[in-house]
Automatic annotation (TrEMBL):
Signal peptide: none annotated. The lineage of its organism: Eukaryota, Viridiplantae, Streptophyta, Embryophyta, Tracheophyta. This is Os04g0563300 protein. InterPro entries: F-box-like_dom_sf, F-box_dom, KIB1-4_b-propeller. It holds the Pfam family F-box-like. Residues 9-43 form the F-box domain. Residues 93-149 form the KIB1-4 beta-propeller domain.
Amino acid sequence: SDPCSSGHWSDLPVDLLHRILHSLELPEALAVADVCKSWCCAAIAAGVPRSCTPWLMSWSDKPPHELEYDVLLNNCKWQCPMGCEFHDLVNGHKTYEVNLPQVAWVGASHGWLAAADNLSNLLLYNPFTFTTIPLPPITDLGCVEAVYDSEGSIVRYRLGKHKESDAKFLGVWFY
């Protein structure tokens, strides 16, 4: 018997399917999930969404970043996260809200959302797989230097020789 013809495609090892699925774009991964039940289970475990229905992303009704400003202490505090909502265009009654604490959403591309945290560092968030990837700190950019307080916490960033920005607000205009 030919050893190459004895196996079934549906019996591929799950770890191999995961590696394949993670290398595919969403349309191809959805096609793989439709091949058979075992591949569908592997796709779900790998975080492939179960539908390729288009979704509309919008900002939630909450204020983008409601700030409480204490004039006496000259201290800003983030009060609530900026949320975004995903609306199912086919089933109009389905809406999902995504909120990450202490972030401001700054962009989106290829299914990923980009956010700046309370120190203006970037992170990527995939709302379909719930994966969060922190990117290198803003201080890795040659033009940005952290300014610390007496307790060692970052309070400002220095951009070049003359411009300084509060650590919490740099990400709002820098990105």
